[in-house]
Amino acid sequence: MNTDMANERNLSLTEEEIRELIANEFPRLITQNTEIRYELIGVMSETFAKKEDITAILNELRQMREESEQQRLEFRQEMQVLREESNRLREESEQRWAEFRQEMKVLREESNRLREESEQRWVEFRQEIKALREESSASRAYTDNAIRRFDHTVQGLGARWGLQSEEAFRNGLAAILTDELGFRVEQYEGYDDSGSVFGHPEQIEMDVIIRNASVIAIEIKSSVSRSDLSLFQRKVAFFEQTENVTVNRKFFISPFVDPNAVGLAARMGIELYTHSLDIII
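and the corresponding structure tokens:
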């Protein structure tokens, strides 16, 4: 009965009281009771790691720490290599950019120099062109003036030569026709009161060759144009009207014939000759 009461009293202990009882009695029991001590060691050896295990664990941890340190050291070395490589690449890149900028500066200066030289050459070229144009204009003006003076001189000489040569040719042809061939050459002179020939009253002169009953009107000039043909045609018409004769043939002799006058002469029935030997009578 007393044991049951003790058990009931032990069961009624609180957790705090149990903790206090173990703290006070446990060291004494281990020291005084060998069985309890060995039993406790057996229980603890199964529950907690042994010294060898702890040593092994510590060694493993130490080895892991050393390996980690080694890896960290190698990582730092690799990072250092990468950092140095990156710095080298950055320096090389900066050096290349510096060289590129220098080359661009040189090219820009060269381009500016070439542009200035080109602009200077264009200025000089335009000045030379302007000078040549002015010189050409002056030369053209001088040439035109010289040509005009020469043309006036030639026209004056031609007019004098033409009149003289026409008269000389007329006299020579008249002598040949009269002395050698027996033709009669007359110079017709009449006055046009109505102005049918020149458009106003004027003296009319024309050479006439008479052979038997045939009458040939002849005109000799240093050159012949369409207007000369029209004037010659009006002279022939005036001669036929005033003298009441029919002109059988019309000769126009000239060393220079305007090509535009050839067709008109054919339509008017005027025979053009550039040399007296070409005439067939």
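(Above: one complete record from the training split.) The chain has a mean pLDDT of 78.
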